[in-house]
Amino acid sequence: MLVLVINSGSSSLKYQVRDVAAGTVLTEGLIEKIGMGNGGGGDGEIEGPRDHAEALELVDAAIHQELGGLELGAVGHRVVHGGERFAEPVLIDNEITRAIERLNPLAPLHNPANVLGIRAITRKWPDMPQVAVFDTAFHRTLPEHAWRYAVPDELYTNHGIRRYGFHGTSHEYVARRSAALLDLPPEEFDGVIAHLGNGASVTAIRGGQSVDTSMGFTPLEGLVMGTRSGDLDPSILVFLGRAGWTPEDIDSMLNRESGLKGLAGNNDMRTVVEAAESGDAKAAMALAVASYRLAKYIGGYHVAVGGAKALVFTAGIGENSSQFRALVADRLGALGIELDAGLNAKRSREPRVISAPSSAIPVLVVPTDEERAIAEATAAVVGSNR
Ligand code: ADP
Predict the structure, then answer these.
(1) Which DSSP letter does residue 339 get?
(2) Is the minimum distance from the CB of 226 to ligand 1 under 6 angstroms?
(3) C-alpha 104 to ligand 1 mean position (Å)
(4) Which of 15, 144, 172, 301 lies at a C-alpha separation of 20 to 30 Å from 165?
């Protein structure tokens, strides 16, 4: 089956056409600047589709030009927030679309954009099966003691304030591949997975299920990220509010100006590592803060899973930055974790072990592929609904 995978943002639309059986990408692309007007502003160069429907026409034209008259079997959507309702990918109908829309308050930037993508497809290809794959779904197995915040119950019951977790599609896919690399059935995998991209999260997996994860109510909680702060004392926000910062000021500072960018002036791990290596003290400090925070989480999650049997690195930084992996592993001596410097330095696109034989547990690098996971889930849901 050929599946069109759609990741619809408020002003962008990322797509891939995948052959699910072969596991290959037939074509992919990114439409940007949706709804930004054409020439209306001071910058006459801005030109983009008027809305998501127009963006979809561009996608359709591009796919046709690349691949000719192929027959798509289904569309799979990356949907950021599935709330408490969605624990699995689902076949989309009007009721499901409205349910995703009702979750808008929990993901005000993402879910409305996802719904625009879904509605554009529904209008263009009314008979096309569409599947929603949720970023939160894999974390629906978190026990209550892991998803509760210690605040008055009314915040949860009236506002849905609890921990949801994100990056679930990636964590689930990487857990499955890690189990395969270790010759285990997926339901016997106990481990800790660190997904380290621009956004970063770490998940505790017990018996193949997520039992804790570092992102919470929003993707802001947890690790030090490219531009996000991760954990901090919530009183800081109150302090800033009293000092005159607006909610928008605080939101923007924590999501766009913090993390590596806030500490080292740059959000790109490669640049920060290079700066640290050439003696930049701020860059070295940023790496120390980020690796220390992650090591603390890994130690905590070792406890959460009742003794991890593997530590796994994935996503842009996890897959590529041998330096950052080494900084983290250096802090994990208490767990008996030891990298093999040669294996860690080797570059490869394949899942692999990078720990020394003497390491207490294996350390793996397992490339993630969220689009592949979405395409496979989409084909499976469509198949089981035939
Ligand atoms: P996103 O969350 O946007 O999908 P990615 O998973 O692509 O992010 O990860 C982006 C991060 O990966 C950036 O910080 C980038 O510096 C880092 N990265 C990518 N390639 C390398 C590399 N070869 N060495 C070190 N870091 C890398």
Answers:
(1) B
(2) yes
(3) 29
(4) 15
